[in-house]
Design brief:
Order of helices and strands: EHEEHEHHEHEEHEEHEEHHEHHHH
Number of helices: 13
Bound molecules: nicotinamide-adenine-dinucleotide
Largest sheet: 7 strands, parallel
Radius of gyration: 20 Å
CATH class of one domain: Alpha Beta
Length: about 375
């Protein structure tokens, strides 16, 4: 029996990964799904596989709790997706982000040191590289970390800790990925694509921050899951000593489909797919403070070293994603009933909200 421990498993990408994992590894696997069911956690995301998954409600930043889970299940493979991930909320309440994304990354690596595993993947984000200057083509694994928002800074802190663990305890097989913006099923309707679909299906306009020309690098969540799985199982060999000064030699892989699209273009596609007129159904609202303008990463390393390629075409992937939210109305209506309206209006929130302690729920 091979044991997989997946954290953040009730979130968007973690839930997709668990479902794919059970398809790829059909027999003889035990999946331990860990999540503390925070703001974005939704156990219903695992409903279709609930009979094949052991769910543990736990905080990855709690060393005692996580060590106990490791000792009880003795995982062979660990994937750490758990993070506070909603950028807007990080501005209103950064503390929870620091705890999950930085301390949580350390606790998970420490557990894999105390109770050794075959390999451990820490899932990080393109956003740790900061903003891409207009003339530059892309970031690579060797680019310096240059986070500028509370979310990306917390993730970058986690990255630094994981880099320290992977080099200091190199026998542990700790790896890391940075991924582009994901789209697909099970994403909380506070994020751009599900927000647009769920607003339009309820006869509401879609809010777009500022001019909407913020450019993002988009990848289907299924392609991300396949890439993470490949990194988890790759036979990478020892880390060369030169990696200390050449970080591109570390077991770090950037994941992207080289698909750069503006937020405005994404929203226009959703509006049009639902048979509506963008001129009538899009409204521009004040931009988020300190909003990154552009990022793009080059996935050449994972393509050449591990043979991974995205298989989802963007047009077809977007159409399938929009259909999924149209067809799963009960799933997102339940979320909106529980959490209230999602989405932010920074014009209405005002400077007081920037000082709101806690999880930022005040602006929901
Ligand atoms: N969504 C994207 O486009 C994207 C892109 C690149 C990287 N990532 C990274 O992928 C990972 C998953 O992202 P997502 O979009 O699924 O996020 P999400 O917010 O939908 O899910 C994260 C899950 O982690 C859980 N969690 C948070 N802190 C926890 C803690 N301390 N203990 C236990 N559980 C905790 C939450 O309850 C939630 O279920 C994150 O690490 C994120 O930084 C996301």
């Amino acid at each position: 029996m091979t044991v997989y421990l997946v954290t953040g498993a009730a979130g968007f990408i973690g839930a997709n990964y668990v479902q794919h994992l059970l398809m790829w590894e059909s027999s003889d696997v035990e999946v331990i799904a860990v999540d503390y069911l925070g703001f974005a956690g939704n156990q219903a995301n695992l409903e279709s596989v609930s009979d094949r998954v052991v769910f543990e409600k736990a905080d990855i930043a709690d060393l005692d709790a996580m060590e106990e889970i490791y000792r009880r299940y003795r995982p062979d493979y660990v994937v750490n997706f758990a993070a506070e991930s909603h950028n807007d909320r990080a501005i209103l309440g950064p503390s929870a982000f620091m705890r999950s994304n930085a301390l949580g990354a350390q606790v998970m690596a420490e557990c894999s040191r105390l109770v050794p595993v075959r390999s451990h993947v820490h899932v990080s984000t393109i956003e740790v590289y900061g903003e891409l200057p207009p003339g530059d083509k892309w970031f690579t694994e060797g680019s310096p970390l240059n986070a500028k928002t509370p979310y990306s800074a917390a993730k970058a802190a986690g990255d630094q800790i994981v880099r320290a663990y992977m080099q200091t305890y190199s026998e542990l097989n700790i790896r890391m990925t940075h991924c582009a913006n994901n789209y697909g099923p099970y994403q909380l309707p506070e994020k751009l694509i599900p927000l647009a679909v769920t607003n339009l299906l309820r006869g509401r306009k879609v809010p777009v921050y500022g001019d909407g020309l913020q450019s993002r690098d988009w990848l289907h969540v299924a392609d991300h899951c396949a890439a993470v799985h490949r990194v988890l199982h790759a036979d990478l060999g020892p880390i060369p000593p030169r990696a200390a000064t050449e970080p591109e030699l570390l077991p770090i892989f950037d994941i992207s489909a080289r698909c750069e699209v503006t937020n405005l273009d994404i929203v226009r596609r959703v509006v049009t797919a639902l048979g509506l007129d963008p001129a009538e159904w899009i409204e521009h609202i004040p931009d988020r403070p300190n909003h990154d303008r552009r990022y793009l990463i080059r996935p050449e390393k994972i393509e050449t070293q591990l043979g991974w390629r995205p298989v989802h075409d963007f047009d077809a992937g977007m159409a399938g994603t929009i259909d999924w939210y149209v067809e799963h109305r009960a799933w997102w209506e339940r979320i909106l009933e529980e959490k209230g309206e999602l989405g932010f209006d920074w014009g209405a929130v005002g400077p007081e909200a920037h000082r709101t302690p806690g999880d930022g729920a005040a602006a929901g």
